[in-house]
Fold:
Amino acid sequence: MALDPEIFDALLDTIRRFVAERLRPLEAEVEEADAIPAAVIEEMQALGLFGLSIAEDYGGLGLTMAEECRVAIEMGRTTPAFRSAFGTNVGIGSQGLVMAGTPEQKAEWLPRIASGEIVTSFALTEPDVGSDSGAVKTRAVRDGDVYRLTGTKRFITNADKAQLFTVMARTGDAPGGHGVSAFLVPRDLPGVSIGEPEKKMGQKGARVADVIFDDVPVPAANRLGAEGEGFRIAMQVLDRGRLHISAVCVGVAERLIADCVAYASERKQFGKPIAEHQLIQALLADSKTEALAARALVLETAAAKDAGANTTMEAAAAKYFASEMVGRVADRAVQIFGGAGYIADYGIERLYRDVRLFRIYEGTSQIQQLIIARETLRRGG
Structure:
């Protein structure tokens, strides 16, 4: 159920000011330290950001998809690492539980996820398994009241601080996704270990690491849904996550465009601001047009999802278009800033590196193309 419009507008205004006054001044510090200050995490918890998508009954804000996307757009106006700090709790780390959890599972975990007391992670990708997500090799073998979980997951966002993992593991001999099941795996179970955080091209402050499961005894009560339903749950989670990421891409693009306008209005060449040169205006026009198109697609798809429509194709299209779009906008921003865009002091090169990841996670652009084509063929056009 949507929030009262005045209440939601007040929330958006608060987040907008939080981003502008609190987060943006910390961007260089986060980049240098590869970590978000603990005080900022506490402020995010107080704002309710960890529980955007979790029902009010469990302590969350219970936003609709459209409302969540508008919040994600605002959070996109700063380094993506800040959004990532709570992003797994809002999206892929919690939504399997929201969609398929039992009342007991929800009561045990969702209030602490919504408050930010618990950080969650989504463990699907493996060393040999990426886009072919139905080919997971991690195994969960039933042993009385527990499943013995063994395998390694790779590039898991927030793994270094997560207390709860949603893990996809093979429980049967059925081929592909049909043999995959989903489990809630607390970090403190024996046999769970976390690798060193990876060194990445961008998005410093948002850490990823391996998660290793060595004969971990996962209670059977922690399985999400029935055996063999894990792949379906994962795909539903990713459908939703793609819309959220699309909205973040829109926010980053809008921030880059605003930065370009400010810089181009001040920087002078040939006796006038470069904003008055038509070829600079063309770069701005292309960026603005694409950002507006992405925003419209994201919000229209979110509204359709809220109305109960099947938006698998539209969410894939939004993620594909928005993630590719923000890459082009970032590239144009470097060009508009010229040499300054290549220098770290201005932050443009940082965002240029940051946005590259959007075309990879929640499914690569190529996977989105396959989904869009498959659904278009299935729907007859």
User: Anything to note?
Assistant: Residues 131 and 363 are 7 Å apart (CA to CA). The mean pLDDT is 96. The chain is about 50% helix and 15% strand. Strands lie at 120-123, 139-143, 146-157, 164-170, 180-186, 192-194, 208-219, 223-224, 268-269, 272-273.
